[in-house]
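Write out the 3D structure for:
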Amino acid sequence: MNATLFNPFTITHPTTIQTSLVSGASFARFDPSGKLLAAGRPDGSGVIWDLDTRSTVRWCEGHVKGLTAVDWSRNSRYVLTASKDWNIIIWDLASPCDPPQRHTTIRFDAPVVAASFHPRNSRIVLALLSTGEAYIVDLRSSHRGRFELGGEDDSDDKRTIMTTVRFDPTGRHVFVGTSAGTIEVYNTRTKSLVARHRIVGAGVIKGLVFAMGGRRLATNSSDRTIRQFTLPTYSPPPEPSSTYGSSKCQIIETELEPTHRFNDPISKVAWHAISYSPDGEWLAGGAADPAAHKIYIWDISNDGQFASALDGGREPLLDVHWHPHGPRLASTTKDGNILIWHCPSPERWGAFAGGFEEADENVWYEEGEDEFDLEDEAELALRKKMQEDEDIDVVGGIEDSTFVAPINDVIPEDLDLEWADEEGELDREDWRMKIITVEGEEVY
């Protein structure tokens, strides 16, 4: 339907179920374009769904145990699947076959509980093992290696267990949640500890999500409370050739104070997953209710007030993920179904004409005094000629004094982003997925 018919002042968060995908999945993730959906299944296979046709386009079958994580590269060419079978497999969706070709297989010595791509380079992978160890795996030829985060820090007799890991949206830092209720921040390039933040009363940190831009962070912890924080600015680590005499970065030790706390004051329910909207104005929390499918939504732009509770029936919820571009959600049920939520918008027929008014019922029309009077043709032609002679600026646009560098741009002398972009990026925007027909013909 014509997008101009939608009223931009309506509710911008999902309100109702659009469709249900029978997938047998435990969780699902939208790709960066929002057109595809990757679902992880407990039998070790991954399914790629086309949301326009609501059909499967690829099956990623290569694991022998259940999947624990799925992630997309920046331009959706590569899909990462992590499993309890100790393996991470990177699939190339540009290959003309189903299952897609394995681009890389990374094997660990313990089950992988979380994994993700670097936001700028699909050859840098972050992994968390069930033993509480986190690794950055660099597959580039000039930086190839497997680097453990925090492995050099043996000052504590009892080392804290890492429970969740995530790149920030820029890829400069890795944020690690621990079983001691702290958040550790590591520089991605140097693998050195930058900061350690303590959260009072949080318990075990179960999940981390970032809002757009990376300045706001939300945490899901074992005390059944979702907290939102405004992060400080972290200075880049000094280079070994620094004139200050020491190349060791000073670690920031602070206590983070949340700007908002979210919970269910009545049922005191825990949370399976949390997700921000693409503009960061809404926060969704999937409730760990054993008897209902509940998604709570808070309005961050309105001081974090509770906005709505979405009811998906009696199938318990396992995971929730927000669409990267619009008011849509994907939630998975315990029975393996994927529910796609959307916000139905009322049609705005007044877009066809500025003076058009919608009527709920038939009304008598009153004609204006000069509404159908005939105009002088000479005067009408002169006015039309004057409008045609007006100069139109088609290239100037509106000047904006503020400038924000996009995530794909590298700010001069930003060593962290220059390091991440080295050796190019195979995940280009011009790639195409081949459609495999029943007869075996291949078309783009």
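The helical segments are 377-388, 415-420.
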